[in-house]
């Protein structure tokens, strides 16, 4: 949860920096904003992958436990 908030914060701040960079014709700030937005997007994707792996791992462990109980 904490990482999700941090990722969303990066995305929002990145968009703000990117917009300010465009308004003030500051290419460096615009680039920093784009990179910060991408960082937030990547962080969200990694969180999703982490959750998927944990879910699949738990499913496998549950199935193994059920098979062992049946024997």
Automatic annotation (TrEMBL):
Return any one Pfam family short name: CsbD
Give every CsbD-like domain span. 4-53
Q: Which Gene3D superfamilies match?
A: YjbJ (1.10.1470.10)
Q: Name the family the entry cites.
A: Belongs to the UPF0337 (CsbD) family.
Q: What is this protein called?
A: CsbD-like
